[in-house]
Design brief:
Radius of gyration: 17 Å
Number of domains: 1
CATH superfamily: Jelly Rolls
Helix content: under 10%
């Protein structure tokens, strides 16, 4: 389980926005972060929103905004890993049952198959850039283990078992590590 948290230093900034005549501001965050350019996809979710900025056969790049007090599903993927870079706000990432505080400038690697979630514990939206790497990025590669919004699959889809024993098993395994 890799985790890198470090301040970003020495990053150059452009003197001002560079605009192409065909590109327009299509998204503005409450944090004041604008998306200047083409957006491949934008979707609102019960916890906030995401915007797909770029995608290819083996990667997808998104910005994800989590509203204060909200959290994503505790989930895992079988066909992609993820790298998160927090650009605004603060929260707690759960990786394989372990809680990790994050804030602006922190980065977290989510290996293939590892259970994960992020929770906004702050008072402003939590914004991070997610880079997915793998061979498939569809919503059906999300296995929800816990969800605050009623999006768990029916028990029959899990082989008749509730996800709770799996969550407890993951948490016990993480405590032993």
């Amino acid at each position: 389980m890799a985790r890198q948290c470090q301040a970003v230093t020495g990053v150059g900034r452009r003197p001002g926005p560079v605009r192409h005549p065909l590109l327009v501001d299509v998204y503005a965050s409450p944090l004041g972060i604008r998306q200047d350019g083409r957006v491949i996809e934008h979707a609102d979710r019960p916890w906030g929103a995401y915007t797909v900025l770029a995608e290819a056969e083996d990667f997808k790049v998104k910005t994800i905004e989590v509203q204060p007090g909200q959290r994503l599903s505790y989930q895992r993927h079988s066909r992609r890993s993820e790298h998160w870079f927090v650009v605004g706000g603060e929260g707690v990432v759960t990786l394989h049952g372990e809680s990790i505080d994050v804030r602006r400038g922190d980065a977290v690697d989510v290996p293939l198959g590892m259970a994960h979630r992020i929770h906004n514990t702050g008072h402003v939206p939590l914004l991070f850039v997610e880079v997915q790497h793998g061979d498939y990025f569809g919503e059906d590669d999300i296995v929800r283990l816990d969800d605050d919004y009623g999006r768990l699959p029916p028990r029959s889809a899990l082989g008749g078992d509730s996800p709770q024993p799996l969550i407890r098993s993951i948490e016990r395994s993480a405590q032993r590590s």
